[in-house]
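A reminder from the course coordinator: this example appears on the midterm review sheet, so study it carefully.

Given structure:
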């Protein structure tokens, strides 16, 4: 069982419940999470409420998508015996702490969050002029602080969110905590991800339709690799290429072994190999990674109740940890549950 003590530093991270994951999710976060289980007290949340900040108009697949995300986590190696794996909305205390934090979070703090401005500018097909979208960094802060997380693994674009969380923790502690702070000020744990292009050369993203999914069977992986863009300067088979400017070369750097990578560099630069052969080697590396994952996933696909049981058990453990924090919060704010006799002053 994952330790409920703080003998190890505690980590909180999560992903929105947007359905099955792709290689970009694996390289950008999931592979690192699997390794972190050996060194941290890990809480991983399927963030279904966060999915509603942009996809609030249609909730018909939220539950199904939450399970799909969790199955990919389990397939990749997250272990419910070593980590708490749970669904955000199954821990209602997140919403209570979010509400309390929203009372003390200045509007200007939220309007300055870089991703708020970027997404408002870039997502034009949805109305993001909602309180939920503006306030979702406060919900993120509640997600982190309700488990008293010490560190939050993030990319560069999420550092501002962790800094906001630190500011909210500081503000809450300053207002309500007299003898001892309730909330730690969590640190960002930068997790630089290697460059992973999609099949069209852009960043791998579902919105671009250029993904290789963790659940893609071998024939699909090989077909997608066949159509992947390569070094634009290599027009003819006899032209030498440069793996350092080729999206397929980027895949080799992440997934191929040293001997294959050496063959790619020598063969491409000398034009001894063509792009088709190079792509087939990249496909070989991806298949070696994905096939064991898909085998692990199949037992949950054959019996989805197994995956759901893991989420329910993890959510119960998360509720217990969150409940302990909320008892402290309510007491600090003078809002504890139950009758208390007035004290003589």
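Designed residues:
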């Amino acid at each position: 069982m994952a330790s409920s003590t703080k003998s190890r530093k505690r980590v909180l991270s999560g992903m929105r419940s947007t359905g099955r994951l792709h290689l970009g999710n694996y390289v950008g976060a999931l592979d690192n999470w699997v390794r972190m289980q050996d060194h941290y007290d890990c809480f991983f949340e399927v963030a279904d409420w966060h999915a509603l900040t942009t996809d609030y108009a249609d909730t018909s697949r939220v539950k199904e998508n939450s399970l799909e995300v969790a199955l990919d986590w389990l397939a990749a190696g997250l272990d419910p015996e070593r980590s708490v794996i749970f669904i955000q909305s199954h821990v209602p205390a997140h919403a209570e702490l979010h509400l309390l934090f929203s009372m003390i979070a200045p509007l200007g703090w939220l309007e300055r969050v870089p991703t708020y401005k970027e997404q408002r500018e870039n997502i034009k097909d949805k109305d993001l002029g909602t309180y939920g979208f503006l306030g979702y960094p406060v919900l993120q802060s509640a997600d982190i602080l309700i488990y008293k997380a010490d560190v939050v693994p993030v990319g560069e674009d999420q550092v501002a969110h962790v800094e906001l969380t630190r500011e909210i923790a500081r503000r809450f502690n300053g207002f309500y905590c007299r003898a001892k702070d309730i909330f730690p000020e969590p640190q960002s744990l930068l997790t630089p991800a290697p460059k992973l292009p999609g099949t069209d050369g852009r960043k791998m993203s579902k919105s671009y339709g250029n993904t290789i999914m963790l659940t893609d069977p071998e024939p699909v992986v090989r077909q997608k690799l066949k159509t992947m863009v390569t070094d634009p300067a290599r027009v003819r088979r006899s032209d030498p290429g440069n793996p350092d400017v080729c999206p397929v070369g980027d895949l080799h750097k992440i997934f191929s072994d040293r001997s294959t990578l050496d063959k790619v560099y020598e063969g491409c630069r000398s034009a001894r190999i063509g792009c088709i052969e190079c792509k087939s080697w990249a496909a070989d590396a991806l298949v070696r990674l994905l096939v064991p994952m898909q085998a692990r996933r199949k037992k949950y696909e054959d019996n989805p109740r197994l995956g759901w049981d893991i989420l329910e058990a993890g959510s119960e453990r998360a509720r217990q940890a969150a409940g302990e924090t909320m008892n402290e919060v309510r007491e600090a704010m003078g809002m504890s549950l139950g009758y208390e006799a007035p004290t003589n002053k």
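The chain has two domains: 10-196+304-332, 216-297. The domain at 216-297 is CATH 1.10.240.10 (Tyrosyl-Transfer RNA Synthetase).
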